[in-house]
Design a protein that fits this description.
two-stranded antiparallel ribbon; 8 strands; alpha+beta; 2 domains; single chain
């Protein structure tokens, strides 16, 4: 699923969510977001000094960086909603849901790298288009048979490299891990929820 699809899915999922503040004392907060009369796609944001915990249908993740973690995740000036730095945010993880890791092996990323390599070989004149099409077909077939994840896929590519004239670079230098749908959805949720919370705080101040 593309990054755009994750954002679109998130926006549909939370279209009717409402906020309930369970606790709000300085940096100690418990704020819930859910559709009325159901817990489908609900989530809680819980903070205490130096930590933020996201917990809900999409998993549980704990982040650590600043004394007030709402400040860390707030939409900074000049950045569009949904354009967060997932790599930087993932670096701040202290705990990850046992059923939903932040990253996973992506065959799509591996295929993109292989396509770039093969295009380079074609441009260098090492192989003609027909030869490369045959090589790509063999690679695609081998990878489609790998049910054991990244390790098996890498071993298949090493066998191709050692068994012929295909000069792959050292593929172990490449990262084929991408952020999971669940983790990215949660990051969108955190950013959006803090925006809703902040707006509610402003509205309350204006009423006073």
């Amino acid at each position: 699923m593309s990054k755009r699809d994750v954002r679109e899915s998130f926006e549909k999922d939370i279209a009717t969510h409402e906020m309930t503040v369970m606790m709000d004392t300085g940096t100690v907060r418990h704020v819930r977001f859910k559709r009325p009369n159901t817990i489908c796609m609900y989530f809680d944001l819980i903070t205490w000094p130096g930590r933020l915990c996201y917990s809900g249908d999409m998993g549980t993740y704990v982040f650590a960086r600043l004394e007030d973690m709402f400040e860390f995740f707030r939409l900074e000036t000049g950045r569009k909603p949904g354009k967060m730095d997932l790599r930087y945010w993932a670096e701040k993880l202290e705990a990850v849901d046992k059923n939903g890791p932040a990253q996973e092996f992506s065959k799509e990323m591996m295929n993109d790298v292989l396509d770039d390599i093969l295009t380079g070989l074609k441009d260098d004149g090492d192989f003609d288009a027909e030869e490369l099409a045959s090589i790509k077909k063999d690679i695609d077939w081998r990878l489609s048979m790998c049910a054991d994840g990244e390790g098996a896929a890498r071993r298949e590519l090493e066998e191709i490299k050692q068994g012929g004239d295909l000069l792959f670079p050292e593929l172990w230098d490449y990262n084929f891990q991408d952020y999971t749908f669940h983790f990215e959805w949660c990051c969108h949720a955190i950013e959006w929820a803090i925006g809703i919370y902040d707006q509610a705080q402003k509205d309350k101040e204006q009423q006073c």
